[in-house]
Amino acid sequence: MSENSAFDPQATEDDAAARSQYMSVKDWRIILIGLAVLAVALYPIYQIGKEKSEKAQCVGNFKAMFTALGLYAKDHDDGLPPAFRANGDGTPSLGESGLIYSWHSDLAPYMNTRASFVCPSAHPDEIITVEDPLDSKKTIKASYGMYLPYSAEKIFNIESPDTTIIIAETSSAGASDSYDPLPFKSESGEAIPDGVVIGFDNDNFFPNKKTKAVTRLAFRKSSTGVFDGAIGRHNEGIHALTATGELVILKPKEAVVRLNRDGTPLGRWTVPARTLVK
Asked: What are the φ/ψ torsions at residue 16 (nearest 5 degrees)?
């Protein structure tokens, strides 16, 4: 036997020194089971951390969008960007790329390069692709929509700017079981990604006395127009931006439109005072 019997190839399995140098299958099994149990125990903590990180990134995106809106308005006589370039009937027109040129396209040059138009919590099918304003070979991804009544509107025409929503988290074309009863369609009649804007259940552009809810907000499980039990992109709700730059959390019930006796909407979903709602 060699001087170091622990490494002697002729040592028997019963040799204590040899056993101390090697792990049995049983030992590995115990370690793997322990790691699996630890992973299961830590997963909820990981999920909480991930959600907080994604929520923080989304908040940062909204701050960058509000700054970009201010810079755009300064260069355009205090006007907000149009929600999209439109055909004669008001529907979104598609460029040579087959994509919409949207308000994201107009704001992109003003955006902080560290921010994004995409919430990291958005599902891939909720995200829209629009034209890049500077390079036709590039595109912009987005998961936020503009409230249509204030598309291309002057900032001073916004009613109740402290509470009125101008941008919120949206879902495109009913993705993730979201509410989109009036999807936009191309001139040929084909449905096109429409998460660039927030519309209404009975008219894409302006509410009326029969309007009950706004559409395309990123509330999952709301496709029937019933928001009780709907789930926001950030569980408790979705992020939205008021005209004065306040970031708020919209709960599912706030997708419901409340109307005055004359048919004008109250609360978050006001329209320009000069707009006649029939």
From this structure: -60, -40
State the amino acid at position 30 in one-letter form. Answer: I
Write the DSSP assignment of the chain as a string of letters.
--S-GGG-TT--TT-HHHHHH---HHHHHHHHHHHHHHHHHHHHHHHHHHHHHHHHHHHHHHHHHHHHHHHHHHHTTTBPPPSB-B-TTSSBPB-TTSSB-BHHHHHGGGS-TT--SS-TTS-GGG-EEEE-SS-TT-EEEE-EEEEGGGTT-BGGG-SSTTT-EEEEEB-STTGGG---SS--B-TTS-B---TTEEEESS-SS---TT--BEE-BSEET-TTS--TT-EETTBS-EEEEETTS-EEEEPGGGGBPPB-TTS-B-GGG---TTPPP-
Mean pLDDT of 1-13: 48
pLDDT (tens digit per residue) in 153-204: 999 999 899 999 999 999 999 999 999 999 998 777 888 889 999 999 999 9
Residues 80/34, Cβ–Cβ less than 8 Å: no
Residues facing residue 170 across a β-bridge: 217
Q: Partners of 145 in the beta sheet?
A: 168
pLDDT of residue 7 exceeding 60, the answer is: no
Q: How far apart are CA 80 and CA 66, in angstroms?
A: 11
Residue 15 burial (C-beta neighbours within 10 Å; 0-12, 13-18, 19+)? middle
Provide mean pLDDT across the span 228-232. 93
